[in-house]
Amino acid sequence: MASTAKYKRILLKLSGEALASESGFGINATTITQIAKEIAEVHALGIQIGIVIGAGNIFRGVAASAEGMDRASSDYMGMLATSINGLALQDALEKEGVQTRVQTAIAMAEIAEPYIRRKAIRHLEKGRVVIFVAGTGNPYFTTDTAAALRAMEINAEAIFKATKVDGIFDKDPMKHKDAKKYDQLTYIEVLQQRLQVMDSTAISLCMDNNLPIVTFNLKVKGNIKRIMNGEPIGTIVIAK
Questions:
Q1: What is the pLDDT of residues 213-227, one digit of tens each?
Q2: What is the pTM of this model?
Q3: What is the rounded CA–CA span in Å between residue 20 and residue 57?
Q4: Tens digits of residue pLDDT in 26-41
Q5: How many folded domains does the chain comprise?
Q6: pLDDT digits (tens, 9 = 90+) for 129-188
Q7: How far is CA 122 from the centre of its chain?
Q8: Is 31 exposed, middle or buried (0-12, 13-18, 19+ CB in 10 A)?
Q9: From CA 230, how far away is CA 88, in angstroms rounded?
Q10: What is the CATH number of the domain that holds 99?
Q11: Which of these, 236, 235, 226, 231, lies nearest to 42 by C-alpha position?
């Protein structure tokens, strides 16, 4: 079945909030199990999957910085929080029978491998899901930027950006009932319209390297698999 899939290797970007319940905080066991099942279903098709995970359900560096904390320190705290999420996702995936490796941009030898590009690619080739944590390892860069960077390093064919809505809209669909959904956008349109998909650094990085971004609703069961089968789910951001 892998031969019929639209993509052979993808980078899945999960927000920290995706692991939480409706409260948006902490890690919800039912939620993370459901996400693991979705990933396992796609992995079973023979798709190679890398994952970058955020930390908004535990700690937001930008928010802490806005309240007066040193930005670099708060960003490092956020990186550590992504590691907690990564280990939780690893546990959930392995309960579904999926072999995984967690690779971290900040050394923590007892719990995860250091990020080594060639090793990550080898894991993917062997059918393991690789979870990248600690962002880029640098403050001032978001996990969106980390996702774009890792996607290009592992030669992913697309970034799958998981959200709580059905794609990219001209305004927040949670607040505006008349919000219009886009099926396709260019990188320039996303930047010019300041659409909240990924931060501008991540979008620019994808634009410079012609890496498609597929934005979809993670809450709809089977969406990742549908995209793999070529169904027009969510919004795709491409060069033109």
A1: 999 999 999 999 999
A2: 0.94
A3: 6
A4: 999 999 999 999 999 9
A5: 1
A6: 999 999 999 999 999 999 999 999 999 999 999 998 999 999 888 888 899 999 999 999
A7: 20
A8: buried
A9: 30
A10: 3.40.1160.10
A11: 226
